Amino acid sequence: MKRQRAERSGREGERRAALWLRAKGWRILADRVKTPRGEIDLIARRGSLVAFVEVKYRRNKVDLDHAIDEYRLARVAAAVECIAHDYAGEGDDIRIDVILLAPGSLPRHIANAWQP
Q1: What residues contact residue 59 under an 8 Å CB cut-off, 6+ apart?
Q2: pLDDT score, position 28
Q3: pLDDT in tens, 33-53
Q4: Which fold has domain 2-110?
Q5: Beta-carbon neighbour count of residue 101 at 10 Å?
Q6: Cα–Cα distance between 46 and 76 in angstroms, integer?
Q7: Which of 20, 32, 81, 113 could disulfide-link to 98, CB 3.0 to 4.6 Å?
Q8: CB–CB of 41/75 below 8 Å?
Q9: 51: closest CA among 107, 94, 21?
């Protein structure tokens, strides 16, 4: 039951993050993309920039500070390596972003969150 609730809130967070990105001029290319190395929540494009986005939704704003860490970002980066060529062409820039969400607050968009 707890796992199902977490899955539902995660999907709701991804939906809200996609709406936020669209409002900021991004086009959503894909969501919940599974790779042999993990899942990418959203893939978005704005001009020649392709962002692979990790979305974290927490029930309160305080928990957002601990929602993402280097280990989780490394997993996203590994998943991106598997599929970046499917979404980014020659001359495109790519980056890994994070969007943090909690009820009652605006999304926090961390651009270029992964820099190995």
Answers
A1: 9, 102, 103
A2: 98
A3: 999 999 999 999 999 999 999
A4: Trna Endonuclease; Chain: A, domain 1 (3.40.1350)
A5: 23
A6: 20
A7: 113
A8: no
A9: 94
**Residue 108: strand, helix, or coil:** strand
**Rounded Cα–Cα distance for residues 25 and 69 (Å):** 27
Structure tokens, 27: 């086009």
> Which residues are CB-contacts of 73 (< 8 A; sequence separation ≥ 6)?
54, 96, 98, 113, 114
User: What pTM does this model have?
Assistant: 0.91
Chain position carrying tokens 């409002």:
23
Structure tokens at 112: 């270029």
Domain boundaries, the chain: 2-110
Residue 40 β-bridge partners? 33
